[in-house]
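Can anyone check this?
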Amino acid sequence: MDLKLPRTIRLDASDTFVYSRAAGPGEWAVTGTFLFFGADTATLSGKERQAFRAGFLGIDSFGWSTLVVVTDATAHDRAAAVDRLAEQLVVRCGAPDIETARVAAEEEIAFAQSLCDHPPNTLIGVNRTSEQAGIRESFRTLHRKASRLEPATAFRFVEIEGEDASTEKFDLLAFAGRQK
């Protein structure tokens, strides 16, 4: 069985500016949408709003990452991720006991695993919106347009695929200036 899970990735320092707590690179990740259930998402602002709209949750730090990368994993990696998330659900989210938390963690890891039906090293982004019926998530993949004739460069253009490839623009420099 081809087992793949999402890991947080940090391509630059922007996550440390846009989230109140940024996930470290290389953490196993879940969508983290459960942290917004019951919240009035219309009142979220700043870094909380950014986490709602575009963050994946790193299960070690409970910090946010804008992107995750599809990564090969072992059954042991998956079991450890379920155990760690279950611990976090008890400590950080008030789950009544580890058994209840493990059931919830298993569901979250299974959903995260379902997002990884792509080749390893594929980047995945999320866009969340609040609608009358609840929270809606759409996912997009980013991958390099490969060509053997393409010279090595520091920057490359990527194709964006997904339900809604258009996303709201965010001016990081303007945002960083307001934070001072």
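Reply from J.R.: I decoded it. The helical segments are 14-18, 46-54, 75-93, 98-114, 172-178.
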